[in-house]
Design a protein that fits this description.
Largest sheet: 7 strands, mixed
Number of helices: 13
Order of helices and strands: EHEHEHEHHEEHEHEEHHEHEEEHHH
Number of strands: 13
Strand order of the largest sheet: 8-9-7-10-11-13-12
Shape: globular
Distance between the termini: 36 Å
């Protein structure tokens, strides 16, 4: 595993721990780690010839079968590295795509992953394989040069991408029909979002008594699952959806491909932003989730922070109160609840907060000033995508979920 710290690049993982977790999720066994520092990537080998020789010696010494880079490689860099090292080379994007390809279960999820992989492959057809020599036209090999094999492959990929996009559009329309049905029934919609392996699926199972797959690994589940959650305090059910987890440097093509799935978060009335309370990199993970939410147009949706895995905190780290507020962006404070989905700790307080959000929406609707009204929020989100900075300065949290009734205490932990 190789990581290159480029000058001024924030969020660099010196330990490569997250890359190791990704590799293990893909079924690989990490045997060595290399960290390099450069002002800019080497155009040919990304790490430079000296560091490439060092990596080659490690490959031979450990009899490694592949080299994984924590950054995205260009097609030329990947090709040059494979020739120099003599083994397969993959970057972070390819590794995530491989995991997604193995984990996708539903028809929609498989289509989304296939689209992202095809779009990634389309950029790597430039003189990459030896079978892409130019074909000869005419009988007996006579005549001018025919169509290059690379052009045939590119056209086949382009046609397949077009076909997959059409099928995904159909899925998107079906989801839109389902959402409109929930809107007509005035169903309160809640979506679980958060960094991968924060415990979203475990929390989902604990709340709705479902049996969704949950494991201590990155991207354990990819497909959106929706269930009805009955809230006794308001005597009604709400819609709860578990969505795909986010990760640092999530490939943009994957965000595009999973647009139909992530739309569940953008159209929600409330986001349960699940955070690993025992994680060592909580602020960076929260910031990454906020970035992806802005990218999919969900930055205006009210949030409730759920600090999960509270049972893993040491006694000195345990919060003084179970509910408070936390500033996740400058000027943006949201309610926070500490829970342990595995142990059931804090779930009654979470249910009470959800019931309060539903009650507030109903009361505001009766008064004719619904703060969770979809149409105004959708318009605001659209404007925010066009002029994010201006929208943020205009007051991005004026439609946030009011924590006063959800939190019994307010303090700094």
């Amino acid at each position: 595993m190789v990581g290159v710290h480029l000058g001024g690049r924030p969020g660099f993982d010196d330990s490569l721990d997250e890359l190791a977790l990704l590799a293990e999720s893909a079924g690989d066994e990490p045997v060595a780690r290399v960290v390099a520092r450069r002002k800019a990537p080497d155009p040919a080998l990304f790490v430079g010839s000296g560091k490439a020789d060092e990596i080659k010696a490690l490959v031979e010494g450990h009899r490694a079968e592949a080299v994984l880079f924590d950054q995205a490689l260009s097609p030329a860099q990947q090709r040059n590295l494979e020739r120099h090292l003599g083994v397969a080379v993959a970057d972070r994007t390819m590794l995530i795509l491989e995991i997604f390809g193995e984990r996708a279960q539903s028809h929609e999820g498989k289509l989304q992953v296939e689209l992202a992989r095809l779009q990634y492959l389309a950029t790597r057809l430039v003189r990459r394989w030896s079978h892409l020599e130019r074909q000869r036209g005419g009988i007996g090999g006579r005549g001018g040069p025919g169509e290059a094999q690379i052009e045939l492959d590119r056209r086949m990929i382009d046609e397949r991408i077009k076909s997959v996009k059409q099928r995904l559009d159909k899925v998107k329309r079906q989801r839109g029909t389902q959402r409109r049905s929930r809107e007509r029934n005035q169903t309160f919609r809640i979506s679980l979002v958060g960094y991968t392996n924060a415990g979203k699926s475990t929390l989902f199972n604990a709340l709705v008594k479902a049996r969704s797959y949950a494991a201590d690994q990155l991207f354990a589940t990819l497909d959106t699952t929706t269930r009805q959650l009955y809230l006794e305090d308001v005597g009604r059910s709400v819609s709860l959806s578990d969505t795909v987890g986010f990760i640092r440097d999530l490939p943009h093509k994957l965000v595009e491909a999973f647009e139909a799935t992530l739309q569940e978060a953008a159209d929600a009335d409330l986001l349960l932003h699940v955070v690993d309370a025992a994680g060592s990199d909580r602020p960076a993970q929260i910031a990454e989730v906020q970035r992806v939410l802005r990218e999919i147009g969900a930055e205006r949706v009210p949030q409730l922070l759920v600090f999960n895995k509270a049972d893993r905190l040491d006694a000195a780290e345990r919060p003084r109160v179970a509910t408070d507020q936390l500033e996740i962006e400058p000027g943006l404070r949201v309610p926070r609840i500490f829970v342990s989905a595995l142990e059931g700790e804090g779930l009654p307080a979470l249910r009470a907060a959800l019931a309060d959000a539903v009650r507030r929406r109903d009361e505001a609707a009766e008064a004719g000033s619904d703060p969770f009204d979809d149409d105004p929020r959708a318009a605001e989100a659209g404007a925010a995508r066009d002029t994010r900075a201006g929208a943020a300065d205009a007051g991005a949290d004026d439609v946030r979920f009011d924590p006063a009734r959800a939190a019994t205490h307010s303090s700094s932990v």
